[in-house]
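User: I've been trying to design a sequence by hand for this structure and keep getting stuck. Would you show me what you'd pick, starting by listing the structure so we're on the same page?

Assistant: Good idea, let's start from the same input. This is the structure you sent:
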């Protein structure tokens, strides 16, 4: 049985498309990435899975249960961290988390303190006195305190500093190793690459591709920007170059191929500086799936 399964899942807001014909499955014990630029349909898909909004067509199930008809049973087995968290400001974190734990009819006290210690969260602080990052930590603890079977994360790292992001990723890996499936939604490709086993790419409300992460890594391209002492840049004999743009003595292009061959080519030129980096997701969509 898959942890999550959607079949032609569709949501329209009146005549405006939210998502259309979204089909994918998440295996039990899998960390599944869901990536796309902002506005691509990631949050709409997640909210439909959680029955926070009702689908227009298609189907969606979690652990074999219909997401709308059996929502109450499903929610007991899910941990959810939305992209933005909003709480009652006057409450202390510990009071809020104890209240959340009461819905699961089990003693989550030890787990709450364990997670808070890992995240360096002051449980006695009022929500209104917390930074955005600490509010996000409260959301993480709330989503994990009952050891859910499925963890749904929607842009989870916003507001967390780099060190705390690393701690958060470690927590998610630990939950996965204990048996939880994870749906990890993000527009940051590097986050998904370091954590996920497979990935679905969504654009304009539709799934473009579902790939094994290793396949995605192998097919990933680089954005190369070079400054020349004299121009123009000549890409002759170098395969895998697309989107070549030249502005005076600066050249920019996407490169998919053997980096050793690229370095050999550049070594024959007079170069002032060079920058090789991971392209933005929008660039990958445009040049590989457009």
């Amino acid at each position: 049985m898959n942890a999550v399964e959607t079949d032609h899942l569709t949501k329209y807001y009146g005549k405006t498309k939210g998502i259309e014909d979204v089909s994918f499955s998440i295996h039990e014990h899998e960390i599944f990435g869901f990536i796309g630029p902002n506005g691509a349909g990631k949050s709409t898909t997640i909210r439909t899975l959680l029955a926070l909004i009702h689908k227009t067509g298609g189907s969606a199930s979690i652990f074999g249960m219909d997401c709308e008809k059996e929502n109450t049973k499903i929610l007991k087995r899910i941990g959810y961290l939305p992209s933005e968290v909003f709480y009652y400001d006057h409450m202390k974190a510990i009071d809020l988390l104890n209240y959340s734990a009461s819905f699961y009819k089990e003693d989550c006290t030890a787990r709450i303190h364990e997670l808070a210690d890992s995240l360096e969260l002051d449980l006695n602080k009022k929500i209104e006195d917390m930074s955005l990052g600490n509010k996000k930590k409260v959301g993480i603890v709330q989503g994990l305190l009952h050891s859910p079977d499925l963890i749904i994360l929607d842009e989870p790292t916003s507001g967390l500093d780099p060190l705390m992001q690393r701690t958060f990723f470690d927590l998610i890996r630990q939950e996965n190793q204990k048996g939880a499936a994870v749906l990890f939604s993000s527009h940051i490709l590097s986050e998904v690459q370091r954590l996920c086993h497979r990935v679905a790419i969504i654009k304009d409300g539709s799934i473009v591709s579902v790939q094994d992460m290793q396949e995605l890594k192998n097919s990933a391209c680089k954005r190369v920007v070079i400054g020349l002492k004299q121009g123009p840049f000549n890409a002759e004999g170098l395969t895998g170059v697309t989107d070549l743009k030249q502005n005076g003595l600066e050249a920019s292009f996407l490169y998919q191929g053997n980096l050793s061959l690229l370095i050999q080519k550049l070594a024959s030129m007079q170069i002032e500086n060079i920058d090789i980096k991971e392209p933005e997701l929008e660039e990958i969509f445009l040049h590989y799936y457009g």
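That's my pick for every position. To get oriented when you compare it with your attempt: The mean pLDDT is 90. The chain has ten helices and 14 strands.
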